[in-house]
């Protein structure tokens, strides 16, 4: 399907339930990859998500009334921390994540100097996406035995 039939718009608090469902579906493959069904994205409660949405900048991708993707940003001074880029499993690989990331970067105020994010070391497709968008690995952090977080960032003067 063409990207022209997708609207990227701000998340509303009323979207929390649908976004939580999307998040759980999207992170199911990550849970299998890491053999860990207790990933924070899978154990987050609706109340926790609602609180997070109240304190973040969040966008959703909508097609035919269905939320098929979402991303959240937590501003911290000159850095926008991007998190929970989630795409519905049945529409992954169609450029929705790329479009959400580009819109997040486009909406950053002029005082933002860089974007930062992280993903797991086994999430090779995620790492490839971020690198294709101009993000570069800055460090790795051991989360627990067998799991490393790969931290990436990008200058805000180099948008997607």
TrEMBL record:
Superkingdom as given in the UniProt entry: Bacteria
Pfam families: Acetyltransf_10 (PF13673)
Alphabetized UniProt keyword annotations: Acyltransferase, Transferase
Span of domain N-acetyltransferase: 17-159
Entry keyword Oxidoreductase: no
The protein, known as: GNAT family N-acetyltransferase
Species the sequence originates in: Catenulispora yoronensis
């Amino acid at each position: 399907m063409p990207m022209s039939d997708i609207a990227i718009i701000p998340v509303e608090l009323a979207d929390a339930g649908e976004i939580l469902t999307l998040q759980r579906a999207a992170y199911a493959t990550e849970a299998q990859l890491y053999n860990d069904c207790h990933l924070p994205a899978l154990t987050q409660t609706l109340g926790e998500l609602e609180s997070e949405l109240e304190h973040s900048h969040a966008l959703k991708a909508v097609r035919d009334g269905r939320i098929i993707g979402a991303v959240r940003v937590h501003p911290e001074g000159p850095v926008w921390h991007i998190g929970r880029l989630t795409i519905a499993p049945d529409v992954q690989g169609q450029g929705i994540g790329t479009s959400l990331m580009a819109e997040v970067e486009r909406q950053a105020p002029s005082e933002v100097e860089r974007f930062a994010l992280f993903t797991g070391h086994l999430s090779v497709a995620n790492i490839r996406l971020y690198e294709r968008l101009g993000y570069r690995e800055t460090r790795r952090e051991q989360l627990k035995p067998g799991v490393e977080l790969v931290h990436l960032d990008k200058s805000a003067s180099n948008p997607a």
